[in-house]
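PROTEIN DESIGN WORKSHEET
SECTION A - STRUCTURE
LENGTH: 236
TOKENS:
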């Protein structure tokens, strides 16, 4: 829930030229709903795609305050983030609701950035893998693998300045990859698993050095053009 229209335009006009030559990474920006229209217009001539931060699962109707997958697609979104920990904790979204949203998003051709991750209490009580397994199995129930990107975001690392160590990130990503292989077989090797949680220009190279980390979901550090561009241009 950041940036007004003038701030959004200043950001994108500074950011897009910095990443114009990037051809080996998919760059996606997920602004709030109020910025999707101006952002879609600005992104037309760039190598940057647009995402929604959330959506409801119905196509249209009496769901006051909600935005549908058809609306996201109509405004130019190719992606949508679903299951973000803030949606789960602040807005009480359940695995079952997230599963419905994922199915609806895929039905409208959106690529899904599906977030999973444990809280600090869950990690400290040794339940990290149980939580990840439950979130993956319930969220992806009866969903084919195409168009699904997983984002592993340990809740304790989001917006806190605490990043998982590379060992912790790799361990969780490897676990997720193995669960995806249980569900989807060999296709799991091709699925992208992003790391999220206090990613910065300073730690992106280490994060991306993990074998099972295929990209990053960036919050705070994505809001300044230079900082996000450095993250996009990580080096291994
Ligand atoms: P952060 O946010 O990079 O600021 O920790 C990540 C997120 O909101 O998913």
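SECTION B - SEQUENCE
RESIDUE ASSIGNMENT:
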């Amino acid at each position: 829930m950041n940036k007004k229209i003038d701030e959004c335009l200043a950001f994108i006009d500074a950011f897009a030229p910095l990443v114009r030559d990037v051809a080996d990474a998919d760059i996606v920006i997920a602004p709030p709903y109020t910025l999707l229209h101006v952002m879609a217009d600005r992104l037309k001539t760039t190598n940057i795609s647009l995402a929604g931060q959330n959506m409801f699962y119905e196509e249209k109707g009496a769901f006051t305050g909600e935005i549908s997958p058809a609306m996201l697609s109509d405004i130019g979104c190719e992606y949508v983030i679903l299951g973000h920990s803030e949606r789960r904790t602040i807005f009480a979204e359940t695995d079952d609701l997230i599963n419905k949203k994922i199915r609806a998003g895929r039905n409208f051709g959106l690529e899904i950035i599906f977030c999973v991750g444990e809280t600090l209490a869950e990690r400290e009580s040794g339940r990290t893998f149980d939580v990840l397994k439950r979130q993956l199995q319930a969220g992806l129930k009866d969903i084919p693998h195409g168009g699904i990107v997983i984002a592993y975001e340990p809740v304790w690392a989001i917006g806190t300045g605490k990043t998982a160590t590379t060992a912790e990130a790799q361990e969780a990503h490897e676990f997720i990859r193995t669960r995806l292989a249980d569900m989807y077989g060999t296709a799991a090797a091709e699925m992208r698993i992003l790391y999220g949680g206090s990613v910065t220009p300073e730690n992106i190279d280490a994060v991306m050095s993990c074998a099972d980390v295929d990209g990053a979901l960036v919050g705070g550090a994505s809001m300044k053009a230079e900082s996000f561009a450095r993250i996009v241009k990580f080096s291994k």
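SECTION C - NOTES
The mean pLDDT is 97.
The first strand starts at residue 27 and ends at 29.
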